[in-house]
Amino acid sequence: MDKVYIISVFAENKPGRLERITKVLAEADINILAFSITSTNGFGIIKFMVNKCQEAYKLLKERGFTVSLNEAIGIEMKDQPGGLYEVVKILSSKGINIESASVYVAETRKKAYLIVEVEDTNKAMESLKEENLKFLKPEEIV
Amino acid sequence: MTGAQRGEILQNSMTYGLFTGAFIMHYGAEKVGILVIPAGPGNTERQINLMRDFGTNMLHVTPSYALYLASVIYDKGFDPKRDFKLKRAYLGAEPYSEETRRKIEDMLGIDIYNCYGLTEMNGPGVGFECPYKSGLHIWEDNFLMEIINPETGEPLPDGEIGELVLTTLNREAMPLIRYRTRDLTRIIPEPCSCGRTHRRITRILGRSDDMFIVKGVNIFPQQIEQVLMSTKGVAQNYQIVLESYDEMTVKVEIDRELFDGKIEKLIKLKEEIIDKIRSATMVKPKVELLEPGTLPVSEGKAKRVIDNRTI
Hints:
The complex is a heterodimer.
Chain A: E1 4-12, H1 17-27, E2 32-39, E3 43-50, H2 53-62, E4 67-78, H3 83-93, E5 98-107, E6 111-118, H4 121-128
Antiparallel strand pairs in A: 1-3, 1-4, 2-3, 4-6, 5-6
Chain B: E1 9-12, H1 20-32, E2 35-37, H2 44-54, E3 58-61, H3 63-75, H4 80-83, E4 88-91, H5 98-108, E5 111-118, E6 123-129, E7 136-138, E8 143-148, E9 162-168, E10 179-185, E11 187-188, E12 200-201, E13 206-207, E14 212-214, E15 217-219, H6 221-229, E16 234-244, E17 247-254, H7 263-281, E18 286-290, E19 305-307
Helix pairs in contact in B: 3-5, 6-7
């Protein structure tokens, strides 16, 4: 099983923040495959899954952003009704709590991945080993 | 001094507790033979009910709350002159302008008197306005007052602006000699039209240190700084922004190295800072977490307190 990585960027809840971050990625020719924003009163965290994650992480850090690299699991699901349900049913049966999630649509109407951050990535992957699930491999992220 | 008499009713809407404001007025009023309703602050609905049920003649309240109370009374459709027996209000614990005084006086149809005091001198009543409302008479039989240059410590002649220094004349257990209040004012040497010979001071014009007052509580930036220094997850740079007299906002940059992409941790961090500042200062702050490098870097003496309040 392979882990994937998510880049998390701290941002104040103000206009222009997302623009500044995505500009850096665009200029470095980095492709965003999945992304999510969690915000609370006044601040938030923007999460990206990108094709060149180490490079993106280093670059954002150099540019002064408050950024971290987090482990995640990408689980394949069918891009059709019931696709998400089938996957989360298994996660909940194993008692795995999702801390954050985003979706990477690999092939529209065919194949998508649920990208989740959980409390203990290794433990979660171990408990999912026996399940009939396909996991996203780092080399598939292009 | 302001016409309060035995048999009248005072509604004391200041905070009872570790704050001298409410108690000194309470005990003083009882000594005169005034009935005191120890209402405490807040719960405006109940304040209005108490005022109507008891026929409150006097209020002891902060200026910002007086203004709010007056607007609620209007919004509820009361006619203050018909529905209440209010005659006067004593305002203190926060600075406020002459315009605010007149506005509340007009809204409620009452007289408002300004009061000066400090906890170290037992609280309110070090100085009080008379019906001429032109400066606060200091009880010079109880306090020796001087105005000094805060930089040099040299006494200044009457009329010049400087720091008020007080010496207690009647206190026995803990006399204070030439106590520096850090409050800036000037003495009005001319005799008052009311005939009292105790000299007056003007409203407090500012502070000679960086202390500020929120909700009637004295706060030093150092208290906030100590909390932030002892909190893991935030950087050293911070700013205190004051937009009103009952709220302070503490802006603090998060520590880049300790960021791990988890929002729950940041929410917890924010709550931890709020709790710690509340227990250090007795005032619950608003806290804003900022990106590192957002706040201006201190050049020499950092400007930690941004006071945008107008009086």
